[in-house]
UniProtKB/TrEMBL annotation:
Gene: alaS
Keyword flag Aminoacyl-tRNA synthetase: yes
Keywords: Aminoacyl-tRNA synthetase, ATP-binding, Coiled coil, Cytoplasm, Ligase, Metal-binding, Nucleotide-binding, Protein biosynthesis, RNA-binding, tRNA-binding, Zinc
Superkingdom as given in the UniProt entry: Bacteria
CDD domains listed in its UniProt record: AlaRS_core
Amino-acid positions noted as binding Zn(2+) in the UniProt annotation, renumbered to this chain: 565, 569, 667, 671
Purpose: Catalyzes the attachment of alanine to tRNA(Ala) in a two-step reaction: alanine is first activated by ATP to form Ala-AMP and then transferred to the acceptor end of tRNA(Ala). Also edits incorrectly charged Ser-tRNA(Ala) and Gly-tRNA(Ala) via its editing domain.
Identification of the protein by name: Alanine--tRNA ligase
Source organism per UniProt: Candidatus Blochmannia vicinus (nom. nud.)
Domain statement: Consists of three domains; the N-terminal catalytic domain, the editing domain and the C-terminal C-Ala domain. The editing domain removes incorrectly charged amino acids, while the C-Ala domain, along with tRNA(Ala), serves as a bridge to cooperatively bring together the editing and aminoacylation centers thus stimulating deacylation of misacylated tRNAs.
Amino acid sequence: MHKNIDNIRQEFLNFFKKKGHEIIASSTLIPDNDQTLLFTNSGMNQFKNIFLGMDKPLFKRVTTAQRCVRAGGKHNDLDNVGYTARHLTFFEMLGNFSFGDYFKNEAIQFAWELLTDNNWFNLSKNKLWVTVHICDSESYDIWIKQVDIPNEHVIKIGNNTDNFYDSDNFWQMGNVGPCGPCSEIFYDHGDRFQGGPPGSLKELGERYVEIWNLVFIQFNRQSNGHLLSLPMLSVDTGMGLERISAILQGVHSNYSIDIFRKLISSISQITQVNNDNTNRSLCVIADHIRTCSFLIQDGVTPSNEGRGYVLRRIIRRAILHGKKLGINDIFFYKLVPPLIKYMQHLSDNLREKKDFIKKVLFNEEKLFEDTLRKGLKLLEKKLVLLRGNVLSGEIAFDLYDTYGFPLELTKDICLRHGIHVDQVKFDQSMLAQKKHAKESNKFYIFNKNISLCNILSTFVGYRELTYRTKIIALFRINKPVNKICAKEEGIVILKNTPFYGESGGQVGDSGQLKTISSLFQVTNTKKYGQTIGHLGVVNSGSISVGEEIIAQVNQCKRRHISLNHSATHLLRAALYQVLGTHIIQKGSLVNDQYLRFDFCHHETMTEVQINTVENIVNKQIWINFPIMADMIPIETAKNDGIVMLVNKQYEKIVRVIRMGNFSAELCGGTHAKNTGEIGIFVITKESSIASGIRRIEAVTSITALSVIHQYKKLLQDIFTSTKSNNKNILSKIYEFKSRCQKLEKEIEHLRNQQIIQESLSFIKEIYYIKDVQVLVKQVENMMLNPLTNLIDCLKRQLKSGVIVLINVNKNNKISIAIAVTKDLIENNRINALNLVRLIINTLGGKGGGKPHFAQVGINNVINTSKISTKINYLLHNIL
Ligand code: SER
């Protein structure tokens, strides 16, 4: 009997537990503190700072089953999904990690034992092949001498280009960051499949599949390409759970393993599409529903940039595959329940967020339908106005990029009109966009010298705001120095400090560092790994490393920051009560002026919801709970359901902030002593900052009072200027409004009267071209509404004919409105769009419309008087 995927995952973790590894939970798909890594794409991401030596590891050996997404960014498999048996955009990566503990020898031995020992995976040794980097003779020797793999199965792989370590056997997380040579393990699925061993000419086939990558992390790649040696040698391995499951379940494709078989069968039932086991589109949809559901669960929502944009593309790709299968209804969201049924083991959140995930997918699919419709309309418009029979590649790319129109679809539609698409220009635009994306996919470590100086500063500022301590390091322009002189800027590192380093949304403190003869003004405080840096300028005297100083935090500012921070906790708990449990914090800012809280929510909050949240928070303030800080084990925090950030790796012992029974949150920030100190809480703004993400801004205490005063003053000014009071202001406003409407109507009526008068005089200018009545007339500075009214009025009087009004604006901008009566269109005599096309061909400009009414706009016309003559001439040609 084959092992199921859950057994396989557990066996891997158990094996490494036996080898002294701590089992750590998967982090979320949104990497913590890493703006340029789109998604967690490998087991090692959550340990990046440990590899770099910036954080201390809690355990020297750990093992994980990490959920990963490889779509967008450096490791991107999106376009392969559906075309190979082994690529997925969402997968689980099984990994074992050593942080400065074991290195190549044990890593290779462990891997071999797990794969081949008959107590574990028991794979045939003849089926396994490995690669090593050509310069990594140490790994090569271990495989050849210490492991009983056939020698000819160990293959040395060189570099792809002249660049050293540009190789499949050199792994790096991104353009910068931890990296090192690697040894990859492949499985031979047998000669039923095409392809050759790695390194051979046929290596791209499907026969030999990479299953495990053992990376020996020893460098930190810099943005200029240089490799800096890291202080310790580490190991990062990653094995695709779905790939090893395919092998252990005796199948070739990932899509044939237990979980995918069940999922695909449910999808085929729901969509009524026949599942003949070879249907690529069903596989794509199955892959994409996993990716999209987990991304939404982890807080990504569709949008036009960054992570949200990638999610949007994946959803659209799934929907287009649905269309390929003939599914015309909105269907993607219906796949969430079966997914949850088969993948619940991965995350409790999935079930909890079910309704939210379904709603996001439903809304997005509906939006895409509208977008497709708009794109189609745009394409048709372009086709009407097209000169020649080639559609520009830029237009096709725009349709692809803006409307999610796949090139194939554009080509299909064009073909029906006998038009080709300029593929070369399309490819060029695509390349340019990819280059742009690559350039923005870089992350930098600011002040890296400070990050890597690895000094531990102790924060004493929860209790103390003034503290006698010692300067242990100084930096000027990111370089360590011994002294900073008067008027010079720099960064001071203290042994102990009461200054809070900006983190967790709370801004850094400001204040002063004083010795008997000098003063350093601290304008901001930041964290660099474990180091707290005081940024500022020497106001008088000079300061030197080793000197004793008194560190004094600006107390008033700190107090207001703390009040706002405590209020943010109350706000979060209130939102959870009022809006639901899908609220995930997406960001926050707490300073001495106000607080800002960003969270996932799919719609604008109603006035009632905002008021309810405000009421709840104020009630908790007035209860005046003591605010307690405790240090507890992370496991206890998890079991107690204490609020924590989803994308953060916490220490073993964590700090929890409690406010009565109302709020308990993990937090390193500073807080008030009692909720009552917050005084009053007022929401000043609720807005959207990205699709699916709302932002609340609020104020507390004295700032809240001054906001109330401002509102009062504003109201008073309105009363004075409208000669009203709080009893009659609303009725006054309604009165103003209805008076305005009445006046507007009267004006409109008068304008129409005037137009009818004018049109009567225009009628006299009608002439015939052949048997068709024609009126070509120049008017000046008319707005769109009167212009269309005038044209309608003329059309009614004319009964049959063509009317062209040339509206000349002040800056020689011309808009031409063309109306054609129905009979002429039906008899194929003339159509407004044909005339538009001719006008654009001869006079330039842009335009469009329908057969009975169309418009053209032309900028910067030099000689406006000639336009009527030219149009007249064109009409003669057509009629
Ligand atoms: N980081 C390596 C990879 O993703 C091994 O985990 O392949």
